Amino acid sequence: MSMVSDILEELWNSELKYKGIKINIFGVPKFSKYNHKSMCDTLGQLKRKGLIEKELSGLVLSKRGKEYVRKKFDSLKQFDKPSNSSKGKNLLVMFDVPTERKREREWLRWHLKKFEYIMIQQSVWVGPSPIPKEFSDYLKIIKLDKCIKTFKLEKPYK
User: Fold this and answer.
1) ∠57-1-134 over CA atoms, to 5°?
2) Which tens digits make up the pLDDT trace of 50-97?
3) Four-way CATH pick for 3-75: 3.40.50.2000, 1.10.10.10, 2.60.40.420, 3.40.50.2300
4) Which pLDDT does position 73 carry in this prediction?
5) What mean pLDDT is predicted for residues 133-148?
């Protein structure tokens, strides 16, 4: 996760404040692992983009920032590894996601790894079948289903 994501997520989830900065239940901002200069620069960028604003109580997400975070959380859901998948790698997945949808392509690759698929070539993966129904339904919602083809292998891939 990037520093921007960490900051926005922390501001979204935090309720407690210490010296004007929202903190977690342990009193430590999640993003304390970053150096001070990087943090100041990133906060400045977020402020210029209108994603955060300063109030008397400290830094908060602006209306635009809340919408940005909501879209980020809603746009690419997370799925758990299916429990009913076969032991052998018997499903071939091929995809061609356009470059302007890079984020969705990276999300798809991440989930294929999570589902124990292995990459044969850049956009050719093999793994256990079936792909979870909720996952394939979600691919239709985000309109990636037209970019993906699956093929059932006669013998498991070794």
Assistant:
1) 105
2) 998 888 767 788 999 888 877 766 566 777 776 666 677 889 999 999
3) 1.10.10.10
4) 64
5) 90
* Distance (Å, whole) CA 115 – CA 132: 9
Give CB contacts under 8 A, 24+ apart, made by 19-22: 19/58, 20/57, 20/58, 20/59, 21/58, 21/59, 22/58, 22/59, 22/60
What is the CATH T-level fold of the domain 89-157, as seen in this structure? Alpha-Beta Plaits (3.30.70)
Query: For residues 92 and 65, what is the distance between their CA atoms, to the nearest angstrom?
Result: 39
- The amino acid that residue 118 corresponds to is I
